[in-house]
Amino acid sequence: MPPRRKQVTYSRRPTHAARAAHARGERQFRKYDTSYIRPKRSAAPIVFTVILAIVVLGGLGFGAFYLFNSCSSSSVELLAEGEEATVVVEEGAGARDIGQRLVEARLVPTSAEFTKRVNELGVDGGLKPGTYTFSGGTSLDDIIRTLQAGPAAGHTLTVPEGFTLGQIASSVAEATGGRITAEAFQTAASDASVYAADFAFLADAGQNSLEGFLFPKTYEVDDDATADSIIRMMLSQFQAETANLDWAYATDRGFSVYDAVKLASIVEKESSGEDDIRKKVAAVFYNRLTTEGEPAYGMIGSDATTAYEIGGDPSDYDWNIDSPYNTRKNPGLPPTPICSPSLSCLQAVCAPVPDFGDYYFFSFWPNESGGTDYFFDKTYDDHLATVAAHS
């Protein structure tokens, strides 16, 4: 088996690919309800229509439009004080569309009244998208001011790539001000079978925890969020991110999707943020697991799996301990993933670098520029020579 490398495979440092992914996905979890019904407009009297046409032709079209819209929009019975309604303003929505939503929520009597006031204030371009909750009896001007200010900011929960379930639980506790404790979140995420009926990719996870499936991203967490709703949000993100992945490379070699996530989590801890490096590391692990007759056959040989088990630096670890997470001693994959892998690492496991079948060893070392250099070797002797050259 390979000697211990000079490396830190158990680092809690988030990989630097996480932040760009967070920036791209930050708004993704606002709950937009697009299932509304636009009411039919009542037909205007024929005589009025003729008069309207004359007025428009006479050059008073802009004012006539509002007159027509006001007369043709049915007034609604408004919400009583103490009742609340939620209104979703979509990106790019103008005053007329927003006004219609407010009418449907019974917050304003007609969309024309809202639109007219918005234009009087000159703020049509300043109404911000988002989800709003208004109380019955809120004045028209207060509604408009709220729409100008934007929706109330939720709590931000950031899950970097490579975080463990324990670290995620602590982040949830921090994001919710302790309302959801780390212990409560971990308990809720302790049995994947609870969620398997709704998320097919958990079929092989059994009663293990959701380690590996709580997708790294930045999320908006509502004040009424629960541990269960946050878990489902993360699992839904995993489902969306991996929807186009082809797991065939792994399954053709006898690995389940759960096994592929385990391997991706190890690649996350054993590789830099470069896609090419991750695909090479994934290829080496596949070679070790599937090629008989090689010195490393069946052995992952990753310090990161032991670091996960003991929760820290394994440099003083007794490598003779017979633990399923001791992948220097025990063949095959560990019982569970060891962190939440990035999409890049999942992609690497689904499509490792081709033509890399002769490589069974790798090591990585810090360079003078503060980065990391990776070295891949075909034989154990070559690997020992690489280690000696950098020790």
- Kindly report the average pLDDT value: 81
- The run of helices and strands is HHEHHEHEHHEHHHHHHEEH
Low-confidence stretches at least 5 residues in length (pLDDT < 50)?
1-74
How large is the radius of gyration?
29 Å
Largest sheet: 2 strands, antiparallel
Strand adjacency order, main sheet: 1-2
Q: Between the first and last Cα atoms, what is the distance in angstroms?
A: 18 Å
Structural class estimated from helices and strands: mainly alpha
Number of strands: 6
How many helices? The count is 14
In helices, the fraction of residues equals: 40-55%
Strand content: 5-15%
Envelope shape: elongated
Question: What's a concise summary of this model?
Answer:
The chain has 391 residues and is mainly alpha-helical.
Structure description:
The chain is built from 14 helices and 6 strands. Strand 5 and strand 6 form a beta hairpin. It has a two-stranded antiparallel sheet with strand order 1-2. The protein has a two-stranded antiparallel sheet with strand order 3-4. Strands 5-6 form a two-stranded antiparallel ribbon. It is mainly alpha-helical.
List the helices and strands and how they pair.
Elements: H1 18-25, H2 46-72, E1 84-89, H3 95-104, H4 111-121, E2 130-135, H5 140-149, E3 155-158, H6 165-175, H7 182-188, E4 218-221, H8 227-241, H9 248-251, H10 257-270, H11 275-290, H12 303-310, H13 343-350, E5 361-366, E6 372-377, H14 380-390
Antiparallel strand pairs: 1-2, 3-4, 5-6
